[in-house]
Amino acid sequence: MKLPPFEYAAPATLKEAVALLASHGGEAKPLAGGQSLMPMMAFRIAQPSLLVDLRKLPDLKSIAIDKDGVRLGAMVRWRDIQDDKRLAQAHPLLQAAIAHVAHYQIRNRGTVGGSVCHADPAAEMPGIALTCDAEMTVMGKGGQRVIKAADFFLGALTTALQPDEILIEVKLPAWPAGRRFGFQEFARRRGDFAMAGIAVFYDPDAGGTASNAHVGVIGVGEKQRRLGKAEAAINGSTLDEAAIAKASAAASAEVEPQDDIHASAAYRRALTGTLLERALKSAAG
Amino acid sequence: MKNTFIGAPMERREDLRFLRGKGTYVDDLAPEGLLYAVILRSSVAHGRIRSIDASAALKIEGVHSVITARDMPDGPPIIPMRLQPLPEFKPFEQPVIAHDKVRYVGEPLAVVLASSVAIGEDTLEHIAVEIDDLPAFSEWQVAAQNKSLLFEQAGTNRSLTFYSRKGDADAAFAKAPYARKEKLNTGRHYGLTMEPRGVMAEWDAGKGRLTISGAAKVPFFNRRILAKQIGLPESAIEMIENDVGGGYGARGEFYPEDFLIPFAARHVNRPVKWIEDRRENLMAMNHARETEAHIEIACERDGTIIGLRGDVHTDMGAYMRTNGAVGARNVVQFMGGPYRVPHVKLDSHLWMSNKTPVGTYRGPGRFESSFYIERLLDMVAGDLGIDRIEMRRRNLVTAAEQPYPIASVQPTDAHDQYDSGEYSEAMNRALKEFNWAEKSKFAGKLIDGKYHGLGIACFVEGGAAGPKESARLEVNGDGTITVFMGSSAVGQGVETVFAQIAADALEIPMDRIRHVYHGSTTTVSDGYGAYHSRSIVMGGSALLDATEKFQAAIREAGAKKLGCRPDEVKIGEDTVSGGGKSFPLAELAGLTAEGAFLNKKHTYSYGTHIAHVTVDAKLGQVQILDYVVVQDVGRAINPLTLRGQIIGSLVQGLGGAMLEHLQYDEQGQFLTGSLADYLLPTATDFPNLRCFVTDDYPSPINPLGAKGAGEGGIVAAGGVMANAVANALSSFGAQPRRLPLSPSYIWELVQAGSRQAAE
Predict the structure, then answer these.
(1) In angstroms, how far is the first alpha carbon of chain A from the final one?
(2) What is the radius of gyration, based on Cα positions, of chain A?
(3) What is the structure's pLDDT at B715?
(4) pLDDT at B643 over 90
(5) Percent of chain B's residues with pLDDT above 70
(6) Which of B1, B62, B203, B357 has the most other CB atoms within 10 Å of its CB?
(7) Annotation: CATH topology of B291-464+601-758
């Protein structure tokens, strides 16, 4: 349970950080909050030769909100999101989801960037990024580029990030005032990784008919994913009982869960539908 | 001065030390020249060792040496059984380090000695190990086929069958008007200690002495084993018990490391320390509880129990360890729990498998058997249309029947009887505190999307294992008194309760008892340790004996000094007087007296658990709204620490009922190697727990009247929770038959019920 040997650097600029990452032939890792990387190193699942600590980089810690949306610096911590009163209007789904992240102590340390780049299939932030069509700004040796969430998450613990690239910012598109949303997850104990989690939003018109439905699921299958058939069932409906049941059934049918030590695949399939049903009911309420 | 410390809710003396960070655990020790041991453990579940090559490892800077079985010229010693040391178990006992075969993931292969733990861990991957895989298995059903054998010489994977017998079960079943047969399972748990295990050994080559820190639970017994194994007289080995972060039956038994670390220290003539990390702790410390019961109950139409018969299969893991047979025996010896069962015929089969070996864990065999009998009683009550309370009332042992004999077990020739108590009185108290009459209106009802259910279970808890315990008192230079105990402290608060007992007996204030020392082999001539809820009964009674002898010794010494007869001597708080004169007690500094208590009988505290739960049928989520435990302990020495024992053990029991399960795949690979996989209760999981202690029926077998009481919280938790869930989901016909009650499992029960209803 002791860390394997590694070198450590805490550069003051992004440019230096990128150069350091590039200098170790893919064996270097950025260190953000360390809430996943440190345990993985203690278990010797990860053995990077160099840790590039991002804590001194000044520009990655802010939450910026404007008409285009919410821009979360990669070093924004869960606590910052929970404490930012503006987000109650600017992105209530984000705040609802982050309340489920692990435990108090971990929320004080864990970061947006760390979670997004770690890409755990059951983690909340990657799920929100995918559900909300987030854009990831990354910087590498070749300069900056923007990756859409749909192209960013490739599989369990796998992203489109190159070894020399650092995630700088996650941009969530603007949140319209009338938007409805829900977030539901269920874990064996409070703070555990979810056996399933659902993020949903849609935009109702004046008559209550939904459009632009986005449904994301975490904790079920190989990666976080959108549920297109459930979204189709929501769009054009008024979210009455029948529509909710239809969307819920579509979600259950669409996921590809597997058995593991905590739950059977059949349970996770059913749980996905149950959580979507509850998320939609809370969205309507 | 007449004291009443016994019975008073006194705060723990030891807490001040702990809360100020002044506790000293074995990992706090770091003598000059210390080397850190890290153990290479098998990642193969079953295989034949071809070679272990540490030559590359020895070149790493900071690595002092690597010890394997080859460093032990006579081969690695075998760890003997401490309890039930039957010849049948011999072929299945564990060598202190693997030499020809490995039999479970986590079995020690080599010990690295390095200048830091980190370097030691870095070194592990540089030790080249070649193992030829053998077919591994992790289920008793596969073990029972005897196709792949863990011990070829033994010719079977079954180390023993215990036979539990009372009356004539087959004849009684043949005549019985009603019987029901069930298959029920409990999960694989372990007594996870907050502080993992640790051993530090120092070898004094000049004097030929070994000093071992980190001892716990049974230091005198472990010293006997080690002395034999390592070829030293017992007097050359000192075992020191430091502060200990939890025992639960698992810590302090003799494990491979208890030989390997002292051996290493002598081998390299340097102090050596090994501290278990959590991953090791999960795969190296004794597992427990995994049983499968195929049992049948016979009753009269009015619910009176006629008999129990059937088979229980225990997954023993890869070796028979020191106390590994206790659970498998208890599960059939105590299947009847607190109920009158005239006829018993239960066989308990002990199956070896490629898993971590088992040992005792708080309430060994009792947690399992309580789940079985309590599930059966609710099913029977349902079948026969009898109220669950009435079902129990009809069968609980009465005071008039005490001492009540239970089934005897062969081949260990175990005969036992309960000691005292009117068991239904504890149930009545629990029903009243819980307000069963009012809350039973919710049973099975769907309210705000959740089904409400009530569960009840009654239990007995065994305690006071003999044969003996020792205690010694000594006058200090300042006239205060020090108490030395043969039993061990593993976090139960014995420093406080022993001070209470001694101060009461000596009729002096508590603070005159300066220190209570325990567990170390140097302070008393003999000791038997902390297990089977024995410390208060055995140690406390020994302490009473010691105080009498101590007072006699003071009177005798005082008489000489004062020139009077011993019976004229009066012992005050800090003075001794007689014949019109007096002198300070301090003048008798060094005066000491040792006492003992010998006992072959056991105490049985008893009680009732009741729970009110809600079940979200779609999530399979269970929440506890209220939970009441009533336990009669014969005589409560300290109700405050006792309450801590009950609530603490209850939360452990709820962990076993709802969360905990050590899992392996079919090839014996360990799947629950972290606390993200082996789920323990956290502070938020079980908030609404209440307990009530009574001492209406003192135990007749010891002068205190006390009964062991450290395990009652855990025993009935599985049964009561399963019964409450069954009650909540009665509209689905749900009958939980295994633990833990995971959301996935509860959901499956609901689905099965819904499908049946549809058909």
Answers:
(1) 47
(2) 19
(3) 98
(4) yes
(5) 100
(6) B357
(7) Aldehyde Oxidoreductase; domain 4 (3.30.365)
Mean pLDDT of chain B: 96
pLDDT on residue B590: 96
State the pLDDT at residue B2.
73
Mean pLDDT of B243-262: 96
List C-alpha distances in Å: B210 to A163, B221, B485: 53, 16, 22
Ranges of residues in chain A with a pLDDT under 70 are none
For B146, the token pair is 């005897």
State the CB neighbour count (10 A cutoff) for residue B87: 7
Nearest-by-Cβ selection for A188 from B618, B671, B743: B743
Q: Given CB atoms, is A195 within the 8 Å cutoff of chain B?
A: yes
SS (H, E, C) A16-45: HHHHHHHCCCCCEEEECCCCCHHHHHHCCC
Selecting from 2.130.10.10, 3.30.565.10, 3.90.1170.50, 3.90.1200.10, what CATH number does the domain B31-134+196-244+251-284 have?
A: 3.90.1170.50
Residue A189 has its nearest CB partner, among B122, B674, B679, at B679
In the block, residue with structure tokens 């010489």 = B153
Pairing type for strands B94-95 and B78-79 reads antiparallel
pLDDT in tens, B144-194: 999 999 999 999 999 999 999 999 999 999 999 999 999 999 999 999 999
Whether A192 contacts chain B with CB within 8 A: yes
Which tokens belong to B629? 């435990």
Cis? peptide before B740, omega within 30° of 0: yes
What one-character-per-residue DSSP string does B67-88 give?
Answer: E-GGG-TT-PPEEPPSSS--GG
Residue B611 scores a pLDDT above 90? yes
Q: Alpha carbon B182 to chain centroid distance? A: 27
CA distance B246 to B248: 6
Return the DSSP state at B536. Answer: I
Please say whether the structural domain B13-23+465-598 has been given the CATH code 3.30.365.10.
Answer: yes
Any idea how long chain A is?
285
pLDDT category, B3, cuts 50, 70, 90?
Answer: confident
Residue type, A22: A
Compute the distance between CA of residue B571 and CA of residue B578 in angstroms, rounded to an integer.
Answer: 9
Helix/strand/coil for A125 = helix
What mean pLDDT comes out for the span B547-561?
A: 96
Q: Which two tokens stand for residue B367?
A: 């947690």
Bond from prior residue into B467 cis (ω within 30 degrees of 0): yes
Q: What is the distance between the terminal CA atoms of chain B, rounded to a whole angstrom?
A: 76
Residue A66 is inside which H or E element, if any? strand A63-66
pLDDT band at B1 (very low <50, low <70, confident <90, very high): low
What are the respective helix, strand and coil percentages of chain A, to the nearest 5? 35, 25, 40
The encoded tokens of residue B21 equal 């960070």
Give DSSP secondary structure letters for B261-283: HHHHHHHHTS-EEEE--HHHHHH
Q: Mean pLDDT, to the nearest integer, of B575-590?
A: 95
CATH pick for A180-284 out of 3.30.390.50, 3.30.1300.20, 3.10.350.10, 2.60.40.2150: 3.30.390.50
pLDDT digits (tens, 9 = 90+) for A211-249: 999 999 999 999 999 999 999 999 999 999 999 999 999
Chain A, nearest residue to B660 by Cα: A262
User: CB-based contact (8 Å) between B669 and chain A?
Assistant: no
pLDDT at residue B6 tops 80: yes
List of chain B residues whose C-beta atoms are within 8 Å of the C-beta of residue A189: 659, 679, 681-682, 684-685
Residue B532 is classified by DSSP as T
Distance separating alpha carbons of residues B509 and B1, to the nearest angstrom: 9
Would you call B676 an interface residue with chain A, using a CB distance cutoff of 8 Å?
A: yes
Query: Could you tell me how far CA A170 lies from the centroid of its own chain?
Result: 10
Percent of chain A surpassing pLDDT 90: 97
pLDDT score, position B523: 80
